[in-house]
Automatic annotation (TrEMBL):
InterPro entries: CDK5RAP3. Belongs to the CDK5RAP3 family. This is Cdk5 activator-binding protein. Pfam families: CDK5RAP3. Keywords: Coiled coil. Residues 420-469 form a coiled coil. GO terms for cellular component: endomembrane system. The keyword Oxidoreductase does not apply. GO terms for biological process: regulation of mitotic cell cycle.
């Protein structure tokens, strides 16, 4: 039969300690006995010679039986001068470590401890280090992805803000002042709108003629386009007061816009600092809300009863022009819409004339004033009216009207704009944090890799030492610790 000494002994790494105990190489209660040895090591370690090999040994962290054997080897060099004439060491260091070694050898508790250490490192420590590396790897990927996202969001925020500025028609250097000075240009805008409206007088005349014609001369007494008519006759100067009471005020006390402007200049510089906000709530909606073209109406003076009878002075809201005041401006827009609807219908009728015109019977002849208006004239009036309406519905102008009637509205607008402006900086700050996160994770990865490779080297050495120690108990037969340990000891 084949000689037993040729057959290697294979032991599964996960069952190493059980294997040693079941074959009585190590006693069941080895752990209790090892406590005493650990205590002695703790004290002995405090007094070690300065020696590179020892420093190298202790780097492994957990000192085991095989370290003790090596330390004695080193001490034979460093302590040789302390031998007495009988050849024994008088050095306390040597005595301590020789005692540690002999305690370790008793019942092979040193082998038991080293085997348990080997199992623990393979089953827990090495996998934990690998997981830490995976996590760091993932952290680097996530950080890079998020950094990219935040930089894109920063660029978008910048674009968004610039778009907002150009919609408002300002440069964005001193938001408040720029908005206020734009608002102060409204009077000339209103003037130009009023002039355009006055050009529509013939269209209104045609509207009236046609209404009379359709009603056979007995048209309803409701006056057509009353606000536009006031503008036809009085221009932009006509006030809400006049619309309300049907007479010209003796005096007009307009809200003083220039005072409002001056009061504001002082607060500008202080309040316009960029606020990066540390609350980093980045879920900020897209566009500034320009409303649905509808104007917010702010009543500056609520109670105007009794003022008229007394002095005929137009004050507050009533002192504003029809286009300037939110309430009447809405009515002006409604009248423009009414005119557009009429003109569109008329043009359509004229173009499809002859098929089935509900108003005209057979050969009836229309009045000259209606006959003389061509389709192209109707379309031209229609275009003029539409263009005035869209000027009044311009989002920027809507903001400016609101500012002009309510100084508080400037604050709201400036806040919204500054929120948009500061968003870029906030996203950049977040991107920077992500960049730092990646650096930290890379550092973490490097350190863990080094630690893992060091642990793998130490564990390989420990494996060989344990194999050799078991081999001694079997007359030098080859011992292989195998199984999960191979996977664990692949370096990175």
């Amino acid at each position: 039969s084949m000689d037993d000494s040729d057959i290697p002994i294979d032991i599964h790494s996960g069952k190493l300690l059980d294997w040693l105990v079941s074959r009585r190489h190590v006693t069941k209660d080895w752990q209790k006995k090892v406590v005493d040895v650990r205590e002695k090591i703790k004290h002995a370690i405090l007094d070690m010679p300065e020696n590179e090999r020892i420093v190298e040994l202790l780097k492994g962290g957990y000192i085991n039986y095989f370290h003790a054997v090596q330390i004695i080897d080193i001490l034979k060099e460093t302590e040789k001068d302390s031998k007495n004439f009988l050849g024994f060491y008088s050095s306390q260091r040597m005595k301590d470590w020789q005692e540690i070694e002999s305690l370790y050898k008793r019942d092979s508790i040193g082998l038991g401890e080293a085997s348990q250490l080997l199992q623990r490192v393979v089953q827990y420590e090495i996998p934990a280090l690998r997981r830490t590396m995976q996590k760091a790897d993932q952290g680097i990927l996530d950080g890079a992805k998020k950094e990219k996202e935040y930089l894109k969001q920063a660029a978008d925020a910048k674009k968004n803000y610039e778009k907002e500025l150009s919609r408002m028609g300002i440069a964005g250097r001193l938001l408040r002042s720029e908005l206020l000075s734009l608002a102060s240009e409204l009077p000339s805008f209103i003037e130009s709108i009023a002039l355009l409206i006055q050009k529509l007088a013939p269209a209104k005349e045609y509207y009236e003629e046609f209404r009379n014609y359709v009603h056979n001369g007995s048209a309803p007494s409701v006056s057509l386009l009353p606000l536009l008519s006031l503008i036809f006759s009085h221009g932009s100067a006509v006030t809400v007061y006049e619309r309300k009471y049907g007479k010209t005020p003796t005096r007009v006390d307009k809200p003083n816009f220039d005072l409002l402007l001056k009061a504001d200049q002082g607060t500008e510089a202080a309040a316009d600092e960029i606020d990066f906000g540390d609350d980093l709530d980045l879920d900020v909606g897209g566009e500034i809300d320009f409303g649905d073209g509808g104007d917010v109406v702010i009543d500056v003076i609520a109670d105007d009863t009794g003022l008229v009878a007394v002095d005929g002075v137009a004050r507050g809201d009533e002192a504003l022009g029809l286009i300037e005041n939110g309430e009447t401006r809405r009515e002006v827009k409604e009248e423009l819409e009414e005119l557009i609807a009429f003109l569109s219908a008329r043009a359509l009728d004229e173009e499809t004339e002859g098929s089935a015109d509900i108003f005209i019977l057979g050969s009836e002849v229309r009045p000259e004033k209606i006959r003389s208006i061509t389709v192209s004239q109707l379309k031209e009036w229609n275009a003029q009216t539409s263009s005035i309406l869209s000027e009044l519905n311009n989002p920027q102008k809507i903001h400016l009207f609101k500012i002009r009637t309510s100084p508080q509205y400037v604050e709201t607008l400036v806040e919204e704009l500054m929120g948009k402006r500061d968003l870029e900086g906030r996203y950049e700050k977040m991107a920077k944090l992500m960049e730092e996160k990646q650096k930290k994770e890379q550092e973490n990865l490097r350190e863990t890799r080094n630690q893992l490779n060091l642990t793998i080297d130490n564990t390989k050495r420990l494996k060989k030492e344990v194999e050799a120690e078991i081999s001694k108990k079997y007359k030098g037969r080859q011992v292989n610790i195998m199984g999960g340990i191979h996977q664990a000891l692949v370096p990175v």
